[in-house]
């Protein structure tokens, strides 16, 4: 099996690479604009921008695609978060050898909260996941998305280090904590490698942030 994982240098993407490499059946190609420090004989790294299809290399024999690369609150949110998913899916996913695609969306796609371009991009990822599932069903392949809530990454460190903001977030979360990158990676591994029957679905992993509701008559 050969997996292409975008946004592979840090955070969720790095954790997904590490989890996939624990499975000795899998070789991994990571794609990122930043270099990787990951050392493994079954891992190769490509410096490329998912928003620029001309920078993406041809890779033969891709069986699993994890579209993870993303940014937040930048002028490139839609180009990278949604356009990058579409570019990589077209190049690596819409072909007969594909077995599964997992797109990393966001709980913001469900809540509508956060920055407008980010919300729009991640909502687009959820919708595009369903379109992709329809296209690759002919190969017996699955396509699903995962929508994490808060995740303990360097990208989110400013929030985690702000006691007042952190407490406000925890007050709105049913299970008052955030997921680790490693936990999200386990979900991605299951959805991509173990799962064979679920497709065209989005999995919300947010510690119950969307579920918490203070009912007032």
TrEMBL record:
| Listed Gene3D superfamilies | NAD(P)-binding Rossmann-like Domain (3.40.50.720)
Where on the tree of life does the source sit, at the highest rank?
Answer: Bacteria
Matching InterPro entries: NAD(P)-bd_dom_sf (IPR036291), Sc_DH/Rdtase_CS (IPR020904), SDR_fam (IPR002347)
Is Hydrolase found in the keyword set?
Answer: no
- Cite the entry's keywords alphabetically: Oxidoreductase
Q: Where are the transmembrane segments?
A: none
From the UniProt record, which GO molecular function terms apply?
oxidoreductase activity, acting on the CH-OH group of donors, NAD or NADP as acceptor
- Entry-linked CDD domains: SDR_c
Q: What protein family is recorded?
A: Belongs to the short-chain dehydrogenases/reductases (SDR) family.
Q: What is this protein called?
A: Dehydrogenase
